[in-house]
Amino acid sequence: MTRLAIAFVLALAAAALAGAGATGCTITTTASDAGTDAATQTVQEQCALIAAALCNAYSSCALQEPDDCVENYNAGCCSGTVCGEASDTSEDALQGCVDAYTMQPDCNGLVNSITPDACTGIPQVP
Question: How far apart are CA 107 and CA 36, in angstroms?
């Protein structure tokens, strides 16, 4: 049903353009709307997402998760009023960090407390 509705709307739009003699698209962008990839999450929210991925990676590597893993990571990730501020880290960068822990975690890196390159400096504090 949804596909039919979309096809109908596209057909109407095409007919309107054909009737108006339109020959091409004239949409332009400016530097201010050129696709900023700003995060909508707070520093604390991003810390929590990374902590969850990091701490779950231990079981993927058949390793014992450290005691209070999430709490300890979060405590070192942000503190004070900074935690409630919007992070300067993009959604894509955050996802890259989470993926570094969830896709194929570096088990040796976990044992030796080595932060994946994708997670260095994330989240960025405003």
Answer: 34
